[in-house]
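Re: that backbone. C-alpha cells:
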C-alpha cells in the first residue's frame, strides 16, 4: 500500500511553467519566416492554443499542410526560445513544497514531449519535487485524452487523485478520466465554469486540502 494519501497531478505549461512568451515569440518568428508580415497578439495566440476546435496551423500560418522543414525550424526556434523565456511561476515552490510536506504523490502530466521534461524542470530547480513525470510520447497521447491522468493515478496507488491545470483541454482530460479538477487563474486559459478556480497559491492549497 502507498503511504501517500492523495495523488496531485499538475499540468506544466500555464500551470507550473510560464511559457507564454516563448510560444508567442516562436509563432511570430515563424510567420515572418514564411512571409507573413504582421505579428499576432499574445491574447489571440494563447486563446487559440487552448481551444479544442481550432486548427492552429491554419489560424497562425494560413496553411493547410506545412512542410517538414517549416515544422523542424519551428521546433528548433521554440526549443531555443523556451530556454530563454520560460520560467516557473513565483507561487510554484510554495505549492509543491506544501504537497511534499503532506507526503502527497506529486505528478507532472504535460503535453510536451516526454524527453524534454527533465531538462525543463531541472533548469527551474523543481525536478526533484515530483514523484512521477509523464509527457507526450508515441504510446501516450496528448490531453484531453485521459491516458496520462489514468497512468498517474495508477502510479500513485491512491483512491484520491486530482488534476490541476489552466485550460479547457486540461478540464476535459479530467472529465474524461473521471477525476476532480482545479483550474488555476494565472495560466493561459479562461476560468472554468464547472470547477473551482484558484486565483493564488493559498486558494489552490486550500482546494487541494479539501479534496
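Recovered sequence:
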Amino acid at each position: 500500500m502507498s503511504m501517500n494519501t492523495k495523488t496531485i497531478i499538475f499540468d506544466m505549461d500555464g500551470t507550473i511553467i510560464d511559457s507564454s512568451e516563448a510560444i508567442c515569440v516562436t509563432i511570430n518568428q515563424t510567420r515572418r519566416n514564411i512571409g507573413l508580415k504582421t505579428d499576432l497578439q499574445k491574447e489571440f495566440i494563447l486563446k487559440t492554443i487552448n481551444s479544442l476546435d481550432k486548427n492552429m496551423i491554419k489560424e497562425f500560418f494560413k496553411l493547410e499542410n506545412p512542410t517538414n522543414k517549416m515544422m523542424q525550424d519551428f521546433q528548433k526556434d521554440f526549443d531555443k526560445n523556451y530556454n530563454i523565456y520560460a520560467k516557473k511561476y513565483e507561487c510554484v515552490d510554495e505549492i509543491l513544497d506544501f504537497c511534499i510536506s503532506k507526503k502527497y504523490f506529486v505528478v507532472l502530466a504535460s503535453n510536451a514531449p516526454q524527453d524534454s521534461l527533465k531538462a525543463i524542470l531541472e533548469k527551474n530547480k523543481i525536478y526533484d519535487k515530483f514523484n512521477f513525470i509523464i509527457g507526450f510520447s508515441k504510446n501516450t497521447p496528448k490531453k484531453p485524452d485521459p491516458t496520462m491522468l489514468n497512468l498517474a493515478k495508477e502510479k500513485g496507488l491512491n483512491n484520491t487523485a486530482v488534476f490541476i491545470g489552466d485550460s479547457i483541454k486540461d478540464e476535459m482530460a479530467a472529465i474524461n478520466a473521471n477525476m476532480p479538477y482545479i483550474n488555476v487563474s494565472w495560466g493561459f486559459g479562461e476560468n472554468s465554469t464547472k470547477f473551482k478556480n484558484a486565483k493564488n497559491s493559498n486558494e489552490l492549497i486550500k482546494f487541494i486540502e479539501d479534496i
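The beta strands are 7-10, 17-18, 87-88, 105-113, 132-136, 161-165, 181-184, 196-198. The two ends are 20 Å apart (CA to CA).
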